[in-house]
Amino acid sequence: MAKLGQHFLTDKHALEKIVSLLELKNDDFVLEIGPGHGELTKELRFKNNDLRIMAIEKDAELIRWLQKIFSGDKNIEFIEGDALKVLPYLIHKSKFLNHDYKICGNIPYYITGKLLRIIGELDKKPDITVLTIQKEVAERICAQPRMNLVRSRPRQQTSATGTSGRPASNGMNRLAASVQFWAEPKIAFILPRSVFYPAPKVDSATVVLKLTPPRKISDKNYYKIVRALFAQPRKTILNNVSGGMGISKKETAEKLGGIGIETSLRPQNLSIEDIIKIAGTF
Asked: pLDDT tens, 180-223?
């Protein structure tokens, strides 16, 4: 059984591809989440001798193992703790993070949503984030709006596809709307359960999140609208915004119409730009 929900990635080729996705330079700084036995850490060090690495691991026994394996390497620091609690402190307080950085990790599936929310709330976000997560969750993160009912087509975005090349999602969702506000996500490749030990019950995917330019709206206003829109995804935009914002349907309809949003659409039909327009109106 995987301790603390961990499934250790053992495939050398996959580890090499993950490192390449970080687009590393020798003097880069990488924050690794859940180094486990150090498989990815070793690959990071092997490819970049001067790379500075800080790794957060919750398991005290694994921390001792890692410190022994990497003893003498002054450019690697291991921190014992829960990444969900430690990460914000490190980003804001650590002397090592006064410059750009990148995040990577083969993380326990159950922390994915909360971890992405924490990263999205950081004042200083990573330039590139590469995470190996549950395949279905990766597809949700990369979801695109359903196009069949949208009057004005949203801007073209990179679609996430599985190994079959088919679209990964049937529409926008709360997780995708939250992540795509600050990053452009893409599924790099799918990983079968056989490349992990112990093997998980589902397939995994490595997803790349590249930081996008800041939006011209406050995070607070945007996420407030996201919560309202996706509180009941099967309801119309009109009903969700009206109920979530405590505004009459008449006033809501007038405001949505004023920015060219069809009130009968559902949240799954919206692009990130549509949501930003709505957030800027209410």
From this structure: 999 999 999 999 999 998 889 999 999 999 999 999 999 999 99
Residue 225's SS3 state is helix
| Closest to 225 measured CA to CA, from 275, 181, 259 | 275
Q: pLDDT category, 149, cuts 50, 70, 90?
A: very low
Return the CATH fold of 219-279: Helicase, Ruva Protein; domain 3 (1.10.8)
The domain locations on the chain are: 3-211, 219-279
Cα 230 to Cα 225: distance, rounded to the nearest angstrom: 9
Superfamily of chain region 3-211: Vaccinia Virus protein VP39 (3.40.50.150)
* Maximum average pLDDT range among 13-17, 50-54, 95-99: 13-17
Q: What is the pLDDT of residues 52-75, one digit of tens each?
A: 999 999 999 999 999 999 998 999
